[in-house]
């Protein structure tokens, strides 16, 4: 007489088959809401730092700066599906730690397809770690310069600054080597300015470059030494994003806030409202 099949073995087989089916389902699952979602840009609240992500259909992301630490990993985990571990383009506007510290963390844990740098010489420990990770992972690097067009899926970005390729060059003020980006998303024009100050703004204005944009990422966390009246008259922003946290620098400065109020721009501060999302 044959012995009955043990119930515990049968249960294990059922659990095993269930797990196999679940893994197959995840492997082939496609979330149409993700595939066909409306493009958006998120200005992350990462404290006293800058970080933004352009989130496009078909799981395509452009990450622009990343704050100074691991906060950016939490933000990516919040807004991206668990299976999306790829950043299609990473942009480091300039090598200050409150902009690239978090990006070094992203380089460790995400697959990054391409990096855009200002290229200025940087001997800080954070830059050495950045360069080591980029080399180890064999990530292609692009060096920003005026007139450059960055095309990724459904968005075209224009580089307005720096005016020349600065690869390997020393600069006195890394803020004034910041990458300026202009692009259109969902019929809204954007201008992102890194940490640049009055000197760069004057040069842009002198060159008669079209910097008009509906939405402006205010320079240097709202420093009084950036985003001048003359610059604002040319940009004509309706909305102004200030990426800022608790700090000892007086950011955002009252003078800067008054300049924005005088042109009736709506102000969005990450220290007051958290992440700012535009669709």
Number of domains: 1
Instruction: State the low-pLDDT regions, or none.
Output: 24-33
The main sheet orders its strands as 8-7-5-3-2-1-16
| Rg on CA atoms, Å | 22 Å
SS class: alpha/beta
User: Per the principal axes of the C-alpha atoms, what is the gross shape?
Assistant: globular
Based on DSSP secondary structure assignment, what is the total number of beta strands? 16
| CATH top level class name | Alpha Beta
Number of helices: 9
Description:
Helix content is 32%, strand content 24%. It has one domain: Metallo-beta-lactamase, Chain A (4-Layer Sandwich), CATH 3.60.15. Strands 8-7-5-3-2-1-16 form a seven-stranded mixed β-sheet. Strands 9-10-11-12-13-14-15 form a seven-stranded mixed β-sheet. Strands 4-6 form a two-stranded parallel sheet. The N and C termini lie far apart (70 Å). With 279 residues, the protein is an alpha/beta fold.
Chain-wise SSE layout:
Elements: H1 7-28, H2 32-35, E1 40-43, E2 51-56, E3 60-66, H3 71-79, E4 86-87, E5 89-92, H4 97-109, E6 111-112, E7 115-117, H5 125-136, E8 141-143, E9 149-152, E10 155-161, E11 180-185, E12 188-192, H6 198-206, E13 215-217, H7 229-235, E14 239-242, H8 254-262, E15 266-269, H9 270-273, E16 276-278
Parallel strand pairs: 3-5, 4-6, 5-7, 7-8, 12-13, 13-14, 14-15
Antiparallel strand pairs: 1-2, 1-16, 2-3, 9-10, 10-11, 11-12
Helix pairs in contact: 4-5
